[in-house]
Design brief:
Helix content is about 30%, strand content about 10%. It is built from ten helices and ten strands. The strands form two sheets. Strands 1-5-4-2-3 form a five-stranded parallel sheet. The protein has a five-stranded parallel sheet with strand order 6-10-9-7-8. Helix 4 crosses helix 9. It is globular, with a radius of gyration of 18 Å. The N and C termini lie far apart (about 40 Å).
């Protein structure tokens, strides 16, 4: 199964015994939208609500940290997912939250997972069926796997990178928050960015219908931002969410990257961290 699947593909595969569809919708903090209520009102038939907002590691010092291996296994077992299950993730979120869910699956060595291109918006625009209310399934046991295979960096590691410029730091927020010409109202912080960071707004990686741009277009957008193809990369954003859109797009283009999970929510709140304003240098 490819990392990115079309609505047409899912319509043909929906109902297969080995396929689980997960609604991975999460909205920005402070939004008046309720992902769980929206799921109950209308979702792809058979889809299960992942509750991505709660899929964190509360023991971590990093706010809203990705779940550890045991927490990953517990949630998959609760969702009725086995190691041989095919999983398709979708969202109906302005921040394309299914990319965050994909990152968590990939982090914990679950390879047979895909993102629905265009999400629920495209599915609905095409007049495809919806279901409402709860779905039923049976929980199972999912084994705890090995240590995560991707790098999830903490503030200390990113401080070192910012000082040494040993890899590219790319920020997924809009130019206004990145440059500091507006406040980060989502997190109640001043604008600005990590010193040396580049800026690729996550929405630029998407077409008007919410589908991802081609690998060639994705590569061009990163190059236009001054990011070399062969340099290691760490992605940041406001809270570790849209940074995963950058990482998923990079994956589509055949390139990897690490996540700074604390992102500006952690960096911007610490008076001791260095900060820059203005366009990327």
């Amino acid at each position: 199964m490819d990392r990115l699947v079309s609505t047409e593909w899912l319509a043909g595969e929906r109902g297969a015994d080995d396929l689980v569809v997960l609604d991975a919708t999460q909205h920005l903090g402070g939004s008046d939208r309720d992902a769980a209520a929206e799921y109950l009102a209308g979702h792809i038939p058979g889809a299960r609500f992942l509750d991505l907002a709660s899929w964190t590691d509360p023991a971590s010092a990093t706010p809203k940290a990705v779940p550890v291996s045991a927490q990953f296994a517990e949630r998959l077992g609760r969702m009725g997912i086995r190691p041989d299950t095919r999983v398709v993730l979708y969202d109906d979120s302005a921040i394309r939250s299914s990319a965050r869910a994909w990152f968590i699956f990939d982090l914990h060595h679950f390879d047979n997972v895909a993102v629905l291109d265009g999400g629920l918006g495209k599915w609905k625009a095409e007049g495809r069926p919806l279901a409402s209310g709860e779905e039923s399934w049976s929980a199972t046991e999912f084994p705890t796997g090995p240590q995560p295979r991707r790098e999830v960096l903490d503030k200390a590691a990113v401080l070192g990178i910012a000082a040494s410029q040993s890899c590219e730091i790319v920020d997924a927020r809009d130019a206004e928050r990145f440059e500091g010409t507006s406040e980060d109202h989502v997190h109640g912080l001043a604008g600005g960015h990590i010193p040396g960071a580049r800026n690729v707004h996550f929405r630029d990686l998407l077409n008007d219908d919410g589908t991802y741009r081609t690998p060639q277009e994705i590569d061009r957008l990163f190059r236009d931002a001054g990011i070399a193809d062969d340099r290691p990369l760490v992605a940041s954003c406001g809270s570790g969410m849209t940074a995963c859109v950058l990482l998923f797009a990079r994956e589509l283009a055949g390139r990897g990257g690490a996540l700074y999970d604390g992102s500006w929510m952690e960096w911007g709140a610490d008076p001791a961290t260095p900060k820059e304003k203005g366009a990327a240098r």
